[in-house]
Amino acid sequence: MRAVRMTAPGLLEHAEVPTPAVGPGEVLLRVGAVGACHSDLHILDAPEGMFPTPMTLGHEIAGTVDQVGPGVTGWSPGDRTAVYGIIGCGHCRACLRGLENQCRVVPVGGIGLSRDGGLAEYVVVPASRLLHVGDLDLTQAAPLTDAGLTPYHAIELARAKLRPGTTCVVIGIGGLGHMAVQILVATTAVRIIAVDTSTAALDLATRLGAHEVVQAGPDSVERIRALVGPPPDGADVVLDFVGADPTLTTARQVVATGGQLMLVGLAGGTLPVRPVADEPPTVPLETGVVVPFWGTRAELQEVIALGRLGRLHADVHTFPLDQAPEAYAALRRGEIHGRAVIVP
Ligand SMILES: [Zn+2]
Ligand SMILES: [Zn+2]
Questions:
Q1: 60 CA to middle of ligand 1, Å?
Q2: Burial of 70 (C-beta count, 10 Å sphere; 0-12/13-18/19+)
Q3: CA of 294 to the centre of ligand 1 (A)
Q4: Which one, of 244, 250, 246, 245, lies nearest residue 267 by Cα?
Q5: Minimum-distance ligand to the CA of 142?
Q6: Is the full-model pTM beyond 0.85?
């Protein structure tokens, strides 16, 4: 079968590989769609030895069951599914509570992370990773598993602060951010302020239900402050889907006293936290800072429900498998608005 594999750090190549054999408890999926994620670029850029090579990338997968392995019950050929990408140890304190994204044993384990992923005609996954998607289009189902699940989890963690009438600033209206706007619209009654450098991204945010948009630049903080008022007031929650120094600076300078910073983007910026009574503080008093990671299986089921109800729709740009390396190059150049989805 055809696959697109990381053959060495930084190198993404087409390959012809045997169709994988399905083992006990596993399912062979015919891949219907795979989302191209910024995390794949981080995997490609990681130093030698951090991720196995050669490895088929792709952790945002939807497909149709082709074969079921010995001992698998509840799944049959033809079932349309989305794949929960994380494979925790299954027996640590976190996994037992359903928080496989916090597994205490497996640091970053999963499909397309520590074993072959979905950038291929077929992929083998443990049957326990599958969720039904009904008649949802597979190019929609695939991005729900990460681009939808990750912002949903971040919003879940901040939900106590997202009271009706509060304000949420969403920084970065890309693959995850455009889903976050819709999840906020569908599940809260907050005022949404979308922030991005791109006017096309801000137009998308407005169409999806953002109440205000701010074009990011040297005056981002002043322009957001004009909407949320001066300290100690401010944004109740800030979702930063970038995580670079400028966005982290904006985030901490617009969040309210007692607010919540959710640092989802992994661009490598630094957030200074100095517990002193200086004015202005690096982070306001009583403010929480969380670095969320992906989400849980139960949350993915809820994200799929939002998709099936028509409340969550990925803005998808499809590429054939032959063009997967080009899709990642476009993603790296910042040319993808919404989500690039590869269709084998
Ligand atoms: Zn991802
Ligand atoms: Zn575990």
A1: 7
A2: exposed
A3: 8
A4: 244
A5: 1
A6: yes
SS3 letters for the chain?
CEEEEEEECCEEEEEECCCCCCCCCEEEEEEEEEECCHHHHHHHHCCCCCCCCCEECCCCEEEEEEEECCCCCCCCCCCEEEECCECCCCCCHHHHCCCHHHCCCCCCCEECCCECCCCECEEEEEHHHEEECCCCCHHHHHHHHHHHHHHHHHHHHCHHHCCCCCEEEEECCCCCHHHHHHHHHHHCCCEEEEEECCHHHHHHHHHHCCCEEEECCCCHHHHHHHHHCCCCCCEEEEEECCCCHHHHHHHHHHEEEEEEEEECCCCCCCCCCCCCCCCCCCCCCCCEEECCCCCCHHHHHHHHHHHHCCCCCCCEEEEEHHHHHHHHHHHHCCCCCCEEEEEC
What is the per-residue pLDDT across 26-53, written as a single tens digit (0 to 9) for each? 999 999 999 999 999 999 999 999 999 9
Q: What is the residue type of 314?
A: A
Our measurement of the distance from residue 317's CA atom to the centroid of its chain's CA atoms, rounded to an integer in Å, reads: 16
For 338, counting Cβ atoms within 10 Å of its Cβ (0-12 exposed, 13-18 middle, 19+ buried), the class is: buried
306: Cα within 13 Å, side-chain hemisphere: 24
Q: Determine if the peptide bond prior to 320 is cis (ω within 30°).
A: no
Q: Answer for the pair 111, 61: CB distance below 8 angstroms, yes or no.
A: yes
Q: Which ligand is nearest to the CA of 94?
A: 2
Ligand nearest to the CA of 93: 2
Q: Which residues is 326 bridged to in the sheet?
A: none
Residue with tokens 């269709």: 343
Rounded distance from Cα 296 to ligand 2 centre (Å): 12
- The CA 175 to ligand 1 mean position distance, Å, reads 10
Q: What is the pLDDT of residues 293-311, one digit of tens each?
A: 999 999 999 999 999 999 9
